[in-house]
Amino acid sequence: MQIEPFGVEIWMNAHENDCAINLAETCVSSLTLDELLRLTGRNADALAELLPRKLGYGAIEGSDRLRDAIAALYADATRHDVIVAHGTAGANALVWQAMVGAGDRVVSLVPTYQQHVSIPESLGAEVVRFPLRAEEDWLPDTDALARAVTPGTRMVALTNPNNPTGALIDRAGLERIVEIARAAGAWLLVDEVYRGTAQDDDSIGPSVVDLYERGISTAGMSKAFALAGLRLGWVVGPEEVRTAVSRHRDYNTISVGLIDDHLAALALESADRVLDRSRRITRGNLALIDMWIGSEPHLDWVRPRAGTTALVAYDLDLSSERFCLDLLAEEGVLFTPGSAMGMEGYVRIGFANDPAALEAGLPRVSAFLARHAGERATLRAG
C-alpha cells in the first residue's frame, strides 16, 4: 500500500521540539494527573485502584466503565455502540480500512485532516475533494455538495468542528448533509474530535450518529479533553460498521492500555468539567488572537466558531513553508504552513495552549510581519 506523506505530522515531528513558542499545537493545554484528579473531584485513591491490577491486556473491547462513559456523550448510544481505538487517528484508520475499498467513490470536504483524503486514496478509492471556501465562512455550499454526492457514493467525510479552519456546522447544517448522504445511500463519517469546543454554546452539540442511521462518529481524548498522552479514541456507529471495524481492529489494536482506559473513564465521567476548562482556555485565547489579527494589516481570517485552530491568510511574498521556517528561525515561534494541508497562502495557528505562550508569541510574530513587509516595500521602492 502506497500512501501520501502526512504533511502536518511531518512538519510537527520536524519542528515542534525545537521552537521557543509552539503556536501550532492543536490539543487543549494538557492536564497533569494531579489536575485531572482535582478537576474530577477525586484524590489519589483513584490511582490507587490501579495498584492491585495485573498489567495484562485488560478488557479487549475496552472496559464497560469506559464504554459507558463514551456512550453518555451521545443521545441514544449504549456501550455496545462503542468501539475503542488507539486515538482518533486509530479510529479513523479503522473506519477507512473497514468501510472503503478500491473503486469506491468518496467525497471529502477539504481542507480537512489528511487521513480523510490520503487513506481512502491509498485503498484505491476515487476521492472527490469538495472545497470549503473562506468567502462562505468555510461552511459547505450544500446545493453544490448535493451535486457532488452522486448516487452510489460510498462515503462522505468531514471534520466538525473543522480542522484547520475552526468552522462549525450546526444542527441544521448537519441535517441537510444527512439528507444529501441519505439520498445517495452513502455512509457519513464525521471526525468529531473537537466536538464540545463551541465558542458560543456550552453544550457538547449534536453528533452525526444522533441524526443519521448511517452516521459514523470518531473522536478521542486528545483535543477537547486535553489528554492526548492517553492515545485513546473511539468509533460510534451502526452494527454493520462496528462489525467491520472490529474485524480490522483484531489485527492492529488487540486492546487499549489498561491505565489509559482507567484515566479516560475518570475524565469522561466528569466530561462537563473537563470541557468547561477547555472552553475557558479556547475562548480566552481566541479573543486574544481576534484582537491581534484586527491590528495586523497583513493578516485576514474567518473567525473560528469552535475547535482549537484558525486558518489565517497573509499577504507577504513568501510561500507558507518559507513563512513558517523564517518565523521559526527569526523569532522561535512555530506555526503550521498551509501547504502541509493543501492550503497555500495560509498558516494554521493553534489557540488552545497556555495563554502565556500566546501572549509571548504574538508580539514576536508582529515583529516578523513588520520586518518582512518593510523589506518588501524597500525592494519595491528600489
Q: Can you characterise this structure?
A:
This protein is α/β, with parallel strands linked by helices and 382 residues long. It is 42% helix and 15% strand. The protein contains 13 helices and 13 strands. The strands form 3 sheets. A 7-stranded mixed β-sheet has the order 2-8-7-6-5-3-4, with helices on both faces. β3, α6 (115-122) and β4 form a beta-alpha-beta unit. α4 (64-71) runs parallel beside α10. The radius of gyration is 21 Å and the shape is globular. The chain starts with 6 loop residues before the first helix and ends with a helix.
Please render the helix and strand layout as text.
Elements: H1 7-15, E1 21-22, H2 33-39, H3 45-48, H4 64-71, E2 82-85, H5 87-99, E3 105-110, H6 115-122, E4 126-131, H7 142-148, E5 155-159, H8 171-184, E6 187-191, E7 215-220, E8 233-236, H9 239-252, H10 258-269, H11 271-294, E9 299-301, E10 309-314, H12 320-331, E11 333-334, E12 336-337, E13 346-350, H13 355-381
Parallel strand pairs: 1-11, 3-4, 3-5, 5-6, 6-7
Antiparallel strand pairs: 2-8, 7-8, 9-10, 10-13, 12-13
Structural class: alpha/beta
What does the main sheet amount to? Answer: 7 strands, mixed
Give the strand line-up of the largest sheet.
2-8-7-6-5-3-4
Based on CA atoms alone, the radius of gyration comes out at 21 Å
Looking at the structure, what is the overall shape?
globular
Distance between the termini: 53 Å
- What are the secondary-structure elements, in order, as H or E? HEHHHEHEHEHEHEEEHHHEEHEEEH
**What is the tally of helical segments?**
13
The percentage of residues in β strands lies in: 5-15%
Nearest-integer average pLDDT? 96
Poorly predicted tracts of residues: none
- Give the number of DSSP strands: 13
User: Helical percent range?
Assistant: 40-55%
